[in-house]
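REQUEST FORM: STRUCTURE PREDICTION
Request ID: SP-0412
Submitted by: Lab K.M.
Chain count: 1
Length (residues): 86
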Amino acid sequence: MPEISRFYGIVIYVYYEDHLPSHFHAHYGEHEAIIEIESLAVIAGALPHRALGLVIEWASMHQNDLSAAWDDAKSLQPIRKIAPLK
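STATUS: Completed
RESULT:
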């Protein structure tokens, strides 16, 4: 499971050959949410409110990068890191 970014204790992953819709996994401690890239909606799991806000802020700035990471993962290509939220 390739880690593509890490910030404020949140770790973002995109998995190879994962199911549709295009999405990423956000982990914060024992919490995990799966977030659709296009809509930025949580499609499974949950994060604490503040952590989810940071993830959505970061994802909204990097939607094109996240789409490219998803495409790379689907085609089994190396996945590039995405800059963290600062």
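NOTES: The beta strands are 3-7, 10-13, 23-28, 31-36, 42-46.
Reviewed by: T.R.
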